[in-house]
Specification:
Rossmann fold, two-stranded parallel sheet, six-stranded parallel beta sheet, alpha/beta
Length: about 300
Amino acid sequence: MQDSPLDILILGGAGRLASSLAEVWGKTHNVTSLGRAQLDIGNADLLAATLDTTRFDILVNGAAFTNVDLCESERDAARLINATAAGHMATIASARGARLIHFSTDYVFDGSLDRPLTEEDTPTPVSWYGKTKLEGEELVLTADSRHLAVRVSWVFGPARPSFIDAILNRARTESRVEAVEDKFSSPTYAIDCAEWLAPFLRPGTPGGLYHACNSGSCSWRDYGQKALELAAAAGIPLATTDVGGIRLADMKQFVAPRPVHTVLDTSKLARTTGITPRPWETALHDYIQTRHASISSAN
């Protein structure tokens, strides 16, 4: 006997990850997705009124102030979106008896540990973005033990362009492309993430803090290099298949400091759900085949 469909409300619905959640979960559940054009979550009164008049068993917060550098100069706005609004959602969802799934980031860590980071490691963010995202996590998790705070990193997927799409597009016409070679993390395929988190749509799966990303690690250069290799193998015409390396310290346009090593350990997710995330290389292969190779063959 199949479980009955749930009512799922996704905020920040135009985002790369939120859009994939809506796509995957909408096949078996009743999903309402609201983007910023439909709801400014920074408006507390409007947020409360919208949640009060919308049915949901699960509330998903896919909205965030994600421009890491702009967060440094627009600190009040960043805190409002990344922390205060998340706290409001958590309180309202808890009063409704619903679960909130809130997304956070690897940027809550300072990047000083050269090993995969677990949920037990102490977060020490070095940017205002990371600090506000950590504050949001804490507000969510203290509001209700049913709620989830899910840390993701380097998200790619079909809804909106990411680093991968940008480097592939550049390599189509440019003879030289570059990416940072001394910053490391774990890519997250948005479609996979929807499948990993599906067990949490049911109340029997415990809430709390989780890391959710594909297995393995890489630098931005490794990430881009693999993308070009997969694209070339798929028959996508490229002007170059090599990614040059640059140092993080040479990225003078960056305003906010970036953590250097934020590879996330997903053992807790696997223990809780029975799902072990597949390697990022495999997920990237599928994405390039479905997103880029199909477009190239159609042209």
